[in-house]
Amino acid sequence: MAAAGSGGSRADNGYGGQQARRRKGPGALATGYLVIYNVVMTAGWLVIAVGLVRAYLAKGSYHSLYYSIEKPLKFFQTGALLEEYLLIAKYLPGIVPSSVVLTAFQVMSRVFLTWAVTHSVKEVQTEDSVLLFVVAWTITEIIRYSFYTFSLLNHLPYLIKWARYTLFIVLYPMGVSGELLTIYAALPFVRQSGLYSISLPNKYNFSFDYYTFLILVMISYIPIFPQLYFHMLHQRRKVLSHTEEHKKPE
């Protein structure tokens, strides 16, 4: 499911695609609402970042820091579902070329990892791999929501644009690695407990093996991750080269 999500940089459905073919954007009221939404989300992920730093300083160790930010992580990561509605279904289709399927896949993968893996399989919450994707998500989202906010206000600092289209090169593989390792760590506990699995016989004549499903989820990263990563590399070349052209003296 990719930080695919993940933990790296989400497929660019950004508000600030100046070089893309534009359609009519949101009106003043919608823009104001989107600005507020993105400011809140930026602040939320900053809270998560501060929580991680404070917990690390208090404990003197990076192990098991998940518990210090569990509640805000669940809240703000789940809040991304609203963002996808705003972007894909309501206000901003077509402003920047991107795959709706890939974008939705990334969002759902993060929500899935938050609730259906990390929340549901308590044993993995102490794994270092959880911290790996949490740190990647946190840095990514602070940059991304800041990028969206300033883009909506038509005042985007170059540093934020550069960070948006550069740091994903490291953060994306970091987040995906953390996600995959966490799912892998959850597998034996899911098999032992039969979590979310449905066995035959039952009145619906239907069976579901959550253990197998998680394996299929991990396999799905193979085709999805390269598409998302190379999409962002393409966007980086296009956006930053466009910026450099405008910065050249006449």
Automatic annotation (TrEMBL):
Entry membrane topology: Multi-pass membrane protein
Record-listed E.C. numbers: 4.2.1.134
Entry's Gene Ontology BP terms: fatty acid elongation; sphingolipid biosynthetic process; very long-chain fatty acid biosynthetic process
Protein's UniProt keywords contain Chaperone: no
Pfam family, any one: PTPLA
Lineage top rank: taxon: Eukaryota
Locations listed in the record: Endoplasmic reticulum membrane; Membrane
InterPro entries assigned to the protein according to its UniProt record, in alphabetical order: Tyr_Pase-like_PTPLA
Keywords from the named record: Endoplasmic reticulum, Fatty acid biosynthesis, Fatty acid metabolism, Lipid biosynthesis, Lipid metabolism, Lyase, Membrane, Transmembrane, Transmembrane helix
Keyword Transmembrane helix attributed: yes
Catalytic activity: a very-long-chain (3R)-3-hydroxyacyl-CoA = a very-long-chain (2E)-enoyl-CoA + H2O; (3R)-hydroxyhexadecanoyl-CoA = (2E)-hexadecenoyl-CoA + H2O
Listed pathway(s): Lipid metabolism; fatty acid biosynthesis
Region (Disordered): 1-24
A single cellular component GO annotation: endoplasmic reticulum membrane
Gene Ontology MF, one: very-long-chain (3R)-3-hydroxyacyl-CoA dehydratase activity
Record-annotated membrane-spanning stretches: 34-57, 95-118, 165-190, 210-230
Family the UniProt entry places it in: Belongs to the very long-chain fatty acids dehydratase HACD family.
Task of the protein: Catalyzes the third of the four reactions of the long-chain fatty acids elongation cycle. This endoplasmic reticulum-bound enzymatic process, allows the addition of two carbons to the chain of long- and very long-chain fatty acids/VLCFAs per cycle. This enzyme catalyzes the dehydration of the 3-hydroxyacyl-CoA intermediate into trans-2,3-enoyl-CoA, within each cycle of fatty acid elongation. Thereby, it participates to the production of VLCFAs of different chain lengths that are involved in multiple biological processes as precursors of membrane lipids and lipid mediators.
Cross-referenced PANTHER family: VERY-LONG-CHAIN (3R)-3-HYDROXYACYL-COA DEHYDRATASE, VERY-LONG-CHAIN (3R)-3-HYDROXYACYL-COA DEHYDRATASE 2
The protein's name in its UniProt record: Very-long-chain (3R)-3-hydroxyacyl-CoA dehydratase
Organism: Dicaeum eximium
Lineage, highest ranks first: Eukaryota, Metazoa, Chordata, Craniata, Vertebrata
